[in-house]
Amino acid sequence: MSQDKATRETIANQISIEFGLAYSIVYKKIDKILEIWGNEMIISDLSISHIGSFKIKKKNERIGRNPKTKERHLIKSRKVIGFKKSNKLVL
């Protein structure tokens, strides 16, 4: 996978080629794993050994500015996912 982004499709394709499994089965399994992780993050923080931890953070409401037009607008509060990599993860 020498792309900038790893998508479900590219990961499923790589796994299906490497292990000789059907692409559709691998894609469904990856989709299920991501669904489980998403549901877990709603309940609490998610920590995966040797990879890192995911945490939902709350961003407060603030004033933003369009750099081209200098127009100001309100950016609403929202939740974002933060990631902290494990010390054992080598990139």
**SSE succession:** HHEEEEE
Overall average pLDDT: 91
**Regions with pLDDT < 50 over 5+ consecutive residues?**
none
Radius of gyration (Å):
18 Å
Please tell me about this protein's structure:
This protein has a three-stranded antiparallel β-sheet. The mean pLDDT is 91. It has two helices and five strands, in the order H-H-E-E-E-E-E. A hairpin with a 6-residue loop joins strand 3 and strand 4. The relative contact order is 0.13. The chain has two domains: 1-44, no CATH class; 45-91, HU Protein, Chain A (Irregular). The protein has helices spanning 8-19, 23-43; strands at residues 46-48, 52-59, 62-65, 72-75, 78-85.
Task: Label this structure with key terms.
2 domains, 91 residues, elongated, 2 helices, alpha+beta, HU Protein, Chain A, 5 strands, three-stranded antiparallel β-sheet
What's the topology here?
Blueprint: H1 8-19, H2 23-43, E1 46-48, E2 52-59, E3 62-65, E4 72-75, E5 78-85
Antiparallel strand pairs: 1-2, 2-5, 3-4
Helix pairs in contact: 1-2
Explain briefly what this protein structure is:
This protein has two helices and five strands.
